[in-house]
Amino acid sequence: MKIVIRFFLLLLFFICFWFGLSQINWMQILQVEKVTDSTEEKIAEVIRNSIERSEEIIRDKEIKDVIDSIVHKIANKNRIDANELNILIVNNPQVNAFALPDKHMVIFTGLIEACENPETLSGVIAHELAHIELNHVMKKLAKEVGISVLFSITSNTGGEVLGEVTKTLSSSAYDRTLEEEADENALRYLLNTNIDPEPLAEFFYKLSLDEPEFASKFQWLSTHPDSKERAKNILNEIKQENQSYESVISNKTWDLFKDKVSSKTEQENF
Q1: Which residues contact residue 201 at a Cβ distance below 8 angstroms, ignoring those fewer than 6 apart?
Q2: Which residues, including other chains, have CB under 8 Å from residue 113's CB and lie 6 or more apart?
């Protein structure tokens, strides 16, 4: 009996010990917060330069204006300074979008073409914007790249490592807790802007289709696990809402925008 009691006491001790460790703000203790701004700027600069060297950046004013109008619409309704955001539109058929350090967001033309309506695109933008506003990008880098590497980058000794960061941020999902936080905030952003969140839920459902070729094409979806469950969560949340939604942009503007993007993609393929 004593052995059993000692075992349970020991087990309780370890549970309390690990719980206590999980509550410690290691980022603050190790003073990572003090170097975050400079680290983000350096990482963002290197990644942006790398993307601009290896990819075709869309600089068409009509395309940029539509994306900017959506971003600004969401930002303005949620007290986010849109002027601090940096949006890169990349002519790439991969269906993907991802957040970078220093308030950068990358949107591939493949994602735009995959969106059937502006509400879907707005939902994806809101999701990535949530990652930016919640500082998920740096949290992910601290976890997956390592705090020591972040310090080396800050001290100008980690330049070679920066070239690998783009792959980390663009091809792997955040952990479940961060993804749930981004979902919750994205939903709030959309509701505050009177944008219908249901198309985003429908977009999540696409990954639940048992079509490997389809899933592999949709990089943004394939890196976000539990898509069916997350779609259900969104639908359950909006059932409790009793509000009317507004058009993000007119149907005419959306059609012209999609045609313009498609023409850029076709030129690239040609």
Answers
A1: 230, 231, 232, 234, 235
A2: 93, 95, 258, 261, 262, 265
Mean per-residue pLDDT, 232-258: 87
Q: Radius of gyration of the chain from Cα atoms? A: 21
212-251 residues labelled b (16+ CB within 10 A) or e (exposed): eeebebbbbbbbbebbeebbebbeebbeeeeeebeebbee
Residue with tokens 């740096």: 138
pLDDT digits 0-9 by tens, 110-149: 999 999 999 999 999 999 999 999 999 888 877 777 766 6
Count of other CB atoms within 10 angstroms of residue 136: 21
Neighbours of 133 (CB within 10 A): 18
Distance separating the N- and C-terminal Cα atoms of the chain = 78
Give the rounded distance of the alpha carbon of 195 from its chain centre. Answer: 18
Residues 177 and 104 sit within 8 Å (Cβ to Cβ): no
DSSP code of 57?
Answer: B
Domain ranges of the chain: 28-269
Q: Taking the CA atoms of 65, 71, 75 and 77 in sequence, report the sign of the dihedral they define.
A: positive
- Report which DSSP code applies to 190: H
Q: What is the largest CA-CA distance in the chain?
A: 78
Taking a C-beta distance cutoff of 8 angstroms, is the pair 116, 97 a contact? Answer: no
**For the whole model, what pTM was predicted?**
0.78
Question: Within 13 Å and on the Cβ side, how many CA atoms surround 212?
Answer: 0
234: left (phi over 0), alpha (psi -120 to 50) or beta: alpha
SS3 content of the chain, % helix, strand, coil (to 5): 70, 5, 25
The residue length of the chain stands at 270
